[in-house]
Write a structure and sequence with these properties.
- Strand 2 and strand 3 form a beta hairpin.
- The N and C termini lie far apart (47 Å).
- The protein has helices at 6-18, 25-32, 36-48, 68-73, 76-87, 102-111, 124-131, 155-162, 187-198, 237-246; strands at residues 23-24, 52-55, 58-61, 95-98, 118-121, 137-140, 144-146, 151-153, 168-172, 175-177, 181-184, 203-206, 218-221, 228-230, 249-251.
- The protein is of the alpha/beta class.
- The strands form four sheets. Strands 6-5-4-9-12-14-15 form a seven-stranded parallel sheet, sandwiched between helices. A three-stranded antiparallel sheet has the order 1-3-2.
- It has ten helices and 15 strands.
């Protein structure tokens, strides 16, 4: 791409953010033919204008409430990798809950390549993906449909979870804090994920790298309770150190190295 003036480059980045797309520093440096340090300075300026939140390796829109189609287009390759890794944890005839979210949907797609499972979800798109394989049993929670998230919400979701004990819960992260753990944007999501944590024997958290350092107002799962988190690249140093101290097992591509090589399946 032809090198743009600084003002035009900032506008182009801002336009990308408005679609709900995440910004990767390395990709932007290549796209605009500038150094990574230049992109970092651009992101600092845009953050001061309230247009983004800087995270490890890039930035995300201040509001992560972009419509689901926009989020599906962002970091899609990374989410597909996470989906395959998380799906490998599923066991035949397991009773699994999968939360809503673009990364959770990637897990559901990958499950079609594995053994038959029974799934409950609050995301209709997950039900459609799993039924396309014609081998899984799928239950929807019921609830009020939230178009932006492509998800069912409300008390019917809470009630459905309350009636079950799941073998595994696959939980999409809204944000991950290096001190506090899993963070959420609302009290409802805090309650939803806390309950799901309590009603599951085993929990697998999924988060692409942009979620590390992403802010949230409410803590749903403390750092020491996360257990296993599946992501697309090694977490940055503050997270890696915190995960190691808290006994969190981190799974990511290539060598699939972990901070805790022996997974605890009894309550983690």
């Amino acid at each position: 791409m032809t090198k743009l003036p600084a003002a035009s480059r900032l506008q182009a980045i801002a336009d990308m953010l408005r679609t709900g797309e995440g910004i990767g520093i390395a990709a932007m440096a290549e796209r605009f033919s500038v150094t990574m340090e230049t992109v970092r300075r651009d992101l600092v300026l845009l953050e001061k204008d309230g247009l983004l939140t800087r995270v490890h390796g890039g930035a995300i829109p201040v509001s992560r409430a972009a419509p689901l189609p926009s989020r599906l287009a962002s970091l899609s390759a990374e989410k597909a990798v996470i989906g395959k890794l998380a799906a490998q944890t599923a066991t035949r005839d397991g009773w699994i809950f999968i939360t809503h979210g673009s990364t959770a949907l990637a897990v559901a797609k990958a499950l079609n390549d594995g053994p038959a499972v029974s799934v409950m979800t609050n995301m209709p798109a997950i039900a459609e993906v799993l039924q396309s394989g014609l081998k899984h049993r799928v239950t929807l929670t019921g609830g009020e449909y939230d178009y932006a998230n492509g998800a069912l919400m409300g008390e019917q979701v809470i009630e459905a979870i309350s009636e079950c004990i799941f073998d595994t819960a696959i939980i999409a992260a809204y944000g991950v804090d290096p001190v506090h753990g899993l963070v959420e944007s609302s009290k409802y999501l805090q309650r939803f994920k806390r309950l799901l944590f309590e009603r599951s024997r085993r929990r697998i958290f999924v988060a692409d790298h942009s979620k590390f350092g992403a802010s949230g107002a409410y803590v749903s799962v403390s750092l020491s309770d996360i257990g296993t988190i599946v992501t697309d690249e090694p977490p940055p140093a503050p997270f890696a150190d915190g995960f190691k101290d808290a006994g969190v097992r981190v799974v990511y591509p290539q060598k699939n190295e972990t901070n805790n090589m022996e997974e605890n399946t009894d309550g983690q």
